[in-house]
Amino acid sequence: MKAKKKWMFLGLTVLVVVAAGLGYWKRIGIRNTLYRMLDKQIPLTGDVYGYYGQEVKVKENLNEETSFQMEDSYADKIDTTITKESSMVDTSWQIDQQIEAEVQSGAYTFEEPEVIMDPYQISPLTGVAVFQTDEEYRVRVTVKGKTKEADITGVTVKAKGHRVPIIGLYPKTENSVKLELLDDNDQTIKEMELKVQTDGLPEEMDDMVSVEKSSGESAYGLTIISGQGVYYPFAYDVNGDIRWYLNHRTSTYGVFQLSNGNYIMQDNYGYVSSVTKSFPAAFYEMDYLGRAVQMYLVPHGTHHEIIEKEPDGNLLILTSTLQDHVDDKIIELDRKSGEIVNSLEMTELFGNDYTEDVIDWAHLNTVSYQAEDDTILISPRNLNSGVKLNWTTHEIVWILANPEVFKGTKYEKYVLTPDSDFLWHYRQHTVYQIDTDLDGNSDTVEITMFDNHRNPEADYYDHEKGSFVTVYAVNEKEKTVSLLKKLKVVKANVTSNTIYDADSGHIFGMCGTVKSGTAKTGMTYEFDYESGEILNQYYINKNYYRAIELEANYETMSEAMQQPEDYIKGTLRPLAETTAKIKEPTQQLSEGLNFKLTAGILFAEMRNRQVSQIIFKGENKSYVYDQSFLKLREEDYLLRTESIPIPLTTLEKGTYQIYCVYQDGYYDTAQTITIK
């Protein structure tokens, strides 16, 4: 009898558990249906990692923003126990003044110049030759290569006081550097040769590049590799020799070329939290000597692309909504004010049709602007599409994808019609419109793409091996598309880019992540576009994000910096003001949270998701930086460190004690700040 009751009890328990489970899933199903009807994002389900305690109840202010322009001197308004550190712009300015003093000293001549190696302490294979001449001349500088095709040459501005940039030195070598004084007709008046000794490469860069095939010539003098596994960007020449690198660690996506000969560097300090990894929020504009001229910060971080809207214009930046999703937003940052002047979330285009329980549902990896029709071209990788849309109205113009991707959906009407059967792209990177007419048809525009060709888990996938350098021709009037070129390269599962070089007629396939045994490595290809012949091919001993041409501006690098003004600018999430009574913690935090102050930006460094609130207790008002509502969904990222930028520009004058919620415990950090 007892045994029978026992089995009845167990059976009843099982029924209750099953019923509860069915009830839960039914409830979730009803909830999800309701969210779909309201066209709202369905909240993520599943495990949460980290700590999310709240000492002070504040409203979520994720979408509030405050813009600022400042200099390092802003820190003079703040008395604090926290260490103050200069920005890279201020450091560059201090060094630049010292170099200019050497130029103007009159101690150095063309025949006997001074060579300052690694002048800004960030780019070891560079230098500056300083001297004076009686008359104004331009100077041609040539770092002699192992072959003539490997020479690296540039020409400075006309001047009497000269600071000649030297780019492209070989490591651990006595380099030969030729200087030529040029007259107004660019004829050589006088020349001399310098011998410049360099140190060796960092050990991790030894054997980084090897030549698989070489024609001896390349459209690019130097090719930069950066991002992903390459945290210290470097550039190699036609012979595969590394001739430039940064010894400053960058963030995940490395560097981006600008039209003025500078580049954007995503800094490895200054991150904001998300539901997955943290995103770099700070980046610099720099030249190839390592001189920083601007610092920018953005509220939700950056990822795959920072690009000029137009030459020397505003910056288009890929960012994230952070609200259960990442890699799904675009912003336009005013380059002069640091304000965000336009933005677009991917749900504005595609609603919530693809967002359910998928954190990275769009995975934007490129954006670019076409001024002639005020459009942007984007690449939402996980939708296997290139999408063109009006940047003012945010209306879709067309979608470049296998028609099967959107068949039966409300987006089908935007999909371009193929003019024939051809091999489509899947999980693509770098979708750009180019100016060159490659098909001889003035009614079409050409689109380059790197087709990673990875399985989208769909019935229509072709299972073709390898990845592809791809060029399409789009007739925008007729809404049709033709495949002009598809060159096969080694399989690159992720990252990678395609570049067409109009001057040479070459096209590049930069394969960023290639599996080689158990390791991740890279490969680069340079093709003749017409014939499809591989001209150059290089093996990269680490995986990387992108490869681009190093395009330095010798004229601007040969000029002294103008005293920078308002060079730290951007937009960040502000502190939340609270009138709640803040009690004093009974315990002090000895480790786990560190601060540094740059200008008016406080960087709070911690292990990911260990600190949920930072509280600034004032005499009259108090403020809170709260990230308790951003729930981490991927456990691996608990091992990462983030340094959150907190603007102090909205704090009223007064003294503030800094408290925090660390691992759900309430602590005094023993740090104070006084806004004067």
Short summary:
The protein has about 675 residues and is mainly beta.
Question: Care to describe what's here?
Answer:
- This protein is mainly β.
- It folds into 4 domains: 38 residues; 92 residues, Sandwich (Immunoglobulin-like), CATH 2.60.40.3100; 355 residues, Methylamine Dehydrogenase, Chain H, CATH 2.130.10.10; 104 residues, Immunoglobulin-like, CATH 2.60.40.
- Helices cover 9% and strands 42% of the residues.
- The chain contains 4 helices and 45 strands.
- A 6-stranded mixed β-sheet has the order 1-37-18-17-14-13. Strands 2-45-44-41-42-38 form a 6-stranded antiparallel β-sheet, with no helix packed on it.
- It is globular.
- 46% of the residues are buried.
- The mean pLDDT is 94.
Q: From the alpha-carbon coordinates, what is the Rg to the nearest angstrom?
A: 28 Å
Low-confidence stretches: none
Name the CATH class of the largest domain.
Mainly Beta
Strand order of the largest sheet: 1-37-18-17-14-13
**Share of helix, binned:** under 10%
Just name the CATH architecture of the largest domain. 7 Propeller
Largest sheet: 6 strands, mixed
Task: Summarize this structure as a short list of keywords or feature phrases.
676 residues; 4 domains; 4 helices; Immunoglobulin-like; globular; mainly beta; six-stranded antiparallel sheet
